[in-house]
């Protein structure tokens, strides 16, 4: 059904991206604005409206029959609201109603950004052909989403699969979420870098203290950098194994900035997974890097809209 188009929004703390996407997942029109993350809620919404106005000005807009939104969370799809941690002006913000008002009352489907990336990876990326998958984003935070029985499983509020806040260390460091020893508190990029610095790693002459710089040092053999990635890998392995044991997934896909570290992350991750995923039904669990790149949020938001917007199914999403 190539005449089918949906609008997609990918809303994060840095940028608000929008697109018109066809039933094959091809992005036909794009628009983007920086997120005024520290401004009041209506100012943030104005940036969303500007993106939508740019899309509605396209001659293709008339073919769009639904809007998909992947937003930084937490989101509440049942209420149509969002409360992104890194956008303080939005707390229980009625995003779905506001987007509907801007788009002439098109149906709107809201999911969390981790779920959106999962939809994209299942439709066109590393989880394609897998009926039961966990997809993770490991970057500034750690998020994720699930595909179960061949379908995206966002859960009632759109947050299912949020693996970053599984506790893998009972008496671990307090996490900003309020719990202790969360996967995110150990495996996110800033925490990988923090641990390396606390243990004596020093950046090069450029002063770069990002997780990418720690990964480069680990590749060069720096033992403190290697150890920080090993610790992140162990936390990810424990979380992935717990998820696999709970719902029987057969593949875990890892994207985000930390996911780009390559063997520095994936080699210890696969080793630790063998220690944690020990039952017969999880022993064959594959772990693989994500494939969708920076457009994953938009493509996933479009997939959710295609799957629900008008009874159209996007390649079994």
UniProtKB/TrEMBL annotation:
Q: Which residues does UniProt assign to the signal peptide?
A: none
The record's section on InterPro entries has:
ATPase_NBD, ROK, ROK_cs
Q: Which family does it belong to?
A: Belongs to the ROK (NagC/XylR) family.
Q: Which protein are we looking at?
A: ROK family transcriptional regulator
- Recorded source organism is Streptomyces aurantiogriseus
- UniProt lineage: Bacteria, Bacillati, Actinomycetota, Actinomycetes, Kitasatosporales
């Amino acid at each position: 059904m190539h005449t089918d188009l949906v609008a997609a929004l990918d809303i994060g703390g840095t940028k608000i991206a929008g697109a018109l996407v066809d039933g094959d997942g091809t992005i036909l029109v794009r628009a983007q604005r920086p997120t005024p993350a520290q401004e009041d809620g209506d100012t943030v919404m104005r940036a969303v409206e500007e993106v939508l106005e740019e899309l509605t000005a396209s001659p293709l807009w008339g073919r769009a029959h639904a809007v998909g939104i992947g937003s930084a969370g937490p989101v509440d799809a049942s209420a149509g609201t969002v409360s992104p941690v890194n956008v303080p002006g939005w707390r229980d913000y009625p995003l779905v109603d506001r987007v509907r008002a801007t788009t002439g009352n098109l149906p709107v489907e809201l999911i969390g950004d981790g779920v959106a990336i999962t939809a994209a990876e299942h439709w066109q990326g590393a989880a394609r052909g897998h009926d039961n998958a966990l997809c993770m984003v490991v970057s500034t935070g750690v998020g994720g989403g699930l595909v179960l029985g061949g379908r995206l499983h966002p859960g009632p509020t759109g947050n299912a699969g949020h693996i970053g806040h599984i506790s893998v260390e009972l008496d671990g460091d307090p996490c900003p979420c309020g719990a202790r020893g969360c996967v995110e508190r150990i495996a996110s990029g800033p925490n990988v870098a923090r641990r390396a610095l606390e243990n004596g790693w020093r950046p090069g002459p450029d002063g770069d203290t990002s997780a990418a710089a720690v990964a480069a040092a680990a590749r060069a053999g720096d033992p403190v950098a290697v150890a920080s990635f090993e610790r992140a890998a162990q936390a990810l392995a424990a979380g992935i194994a717990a998820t696999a044991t709970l719902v029987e997934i057969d593949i875990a896909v890892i994207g985000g900035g930390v996911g780009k570290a390559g063997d520095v992350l994936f080699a210890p991750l696969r080793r630790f997974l063998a220690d944690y995923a020990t039952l017969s039904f999880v022993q064959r669990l594959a772990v693989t890097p994500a494939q969708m790149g920076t457009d994953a949020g938009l493509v996933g938001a479009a997939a959710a809209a295609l799957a629900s917007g008008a009874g159209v199914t996007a390649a079994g999403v």
